[in-house]
Specification:
53% strand; 362 residues; mainly beta; Porin; 3 helices
Length: 362
């Protein structure tokens, strides 16, 4: 009996140790849980643009990186550090759906986003190549929610290089209805802390009925992007806007002014003034209608130019991940913008576009 009792106690002790070990391991796992998510967007759309070529004919194309939403794929990793703190990373690349090629013209793999950061009750800090503060700021009052970027003026309003900053340290925090934002990006120019740098600050307010935001960005831009030694001049951008929800309708508007200082030998500073307004109408849980008008007024070296865009778009959701879309838009160039080969490759003052396609998110 004594032998049996000792054996029973031994087995019970082993079981207790095993349970304690498992509990310890599970507690450690809960403390340091991590996950990596693969995500992306595929946009298969066609666009017909009247006066889209120099000959004046219609140009039917499949947009290189998406009509409605940019084609992308990426990795988002999050590690739980405990106590409400976490570490994260985000790598995102763009691609051309029709050919499968990298959409970056500079052959950068993760040209859309490349960041590492951490967060907690204080907010979140991300470091690396990422969207500008302007891009994040206007999302609350940009009618198309940063869709149709090849048509609207939202990408130009975002500023930076393709709406992104290199070497950027971005902070944002969510404190009730308020979201403060700050950005600093060192320029990396020997002998100067200011040259090539970016400083920005902004604030968003969110509620069920009202959203608004305001921000300021200061950049120190080089006079020439190709010269080995070149002076830097200040670029300042001021942005504000808001949105109000009235039942199934959201009304929104915004204003942004960007000024670029130039040498005294050049006539005046360069000014870009953006005005926009629009609406979103949720006709049903599946069918949405959005309309907007964008106005960009530019003055460079004493030459004025203007670009006006009116666009009406509809979407129909087939599921939570897939939707059909279509739009009709009209663009009017005046002044120096008519002959601006970068903004208006066809050289025609008036252009009408029609787009339709399907977008899938995963």
């Amino acid at each position: 009996m004594e032998v049996a009792g000792r054996g029973t106690r031994g087995i019970g002790l082993k079981r207790s140790l095993a349970v304690i070990t498992l509990l310890g391991l599970s507690a450690g796992a809960a403390h340091a849980q991590s996950s990596v998510t693969l995500y992306g967007s595929l946009d298969g759309g066609l666009r017909n643009l009247v006066n889209g070529t120099k000959a004046g004919g219609a140009a039917l194309t499949m947009a290189s990186s998406g009509v409605y939403k940019s084609n992308r794929w990426g990795f988002l990793g999050v590690e739980d550090l405990g106590g409400g703190y976490y570490a994260r990373f985000n790598l995102e690349a763009g691609y051309i759906l029709s050919t499968g090629a990298n959409s970056s013209t500079t052959n950068q793999l993760f040209a859309r986003t490349s960041t590492v950061g951490f967060g907690g009750p204080f907010g979140q800090v991300d470091m690396g190549h990422q969207f500008t503060l302007q891009h994040r700021l206007i999302k609350d009052f940009e009618p198309f929610d940063l869709r149709y970027l090849g048509i609207t003026e939202a990408a130009a309003i975002s500023g930076g290089t393709n709406g992104r900053d290199d070497n950027a340290i971005h902070y944002h925090g969510d404190f009730g209805a308020w979201t403060p934002r700050f950005v600093y990006a060192p320029g990396g120019i020997a002998g100067s802390l200011a040259s090539g740098s970016v400083l920005a600050g902004g604030l968003n307010y969110h509620s069920k009925l009202l959203r608004f935001g305001a921000g300021y960005t200061h950049r120190s831009n080089p006079l020439s992007a190709t010269a080995t030694t070149t002076p830097y001049f200040a670029n300042n951008q001021y942005t504000a806007g808001g949105a109000v929800t009235l039942g199934p309708v959201d009304l929104m508007a915004g204003y942004s002014l960007a000024t670029q200082a130039v040498p005294s030998t050049v006539h005046g500073e360069t000014r870009n003034q953006y005005l926009w307004g629009g609406f979103r109408y949720k006709a049903s849980p599946f069918f949405h209608v959005t309309g907007a008008y964008y106005d960009d007024k530019n003055s460079t070296a004493g030459v004025d130019g203007r670009k006006d865009v009116a666009i009406l778009g509809v979407t129909y959701s087939l599921s939570k991940s897939t939707e059909l879309y279509a739009d009709v838009d009209y663009t009017h160039f005046t002044g120096g913008y008519v002959t601006n080969a970068t903004l208006n490759p066809s050289g025609h003052a008036k252009q009408t576009g029609v787009s339709f396609g399907m977008n899938h998110n995963f």
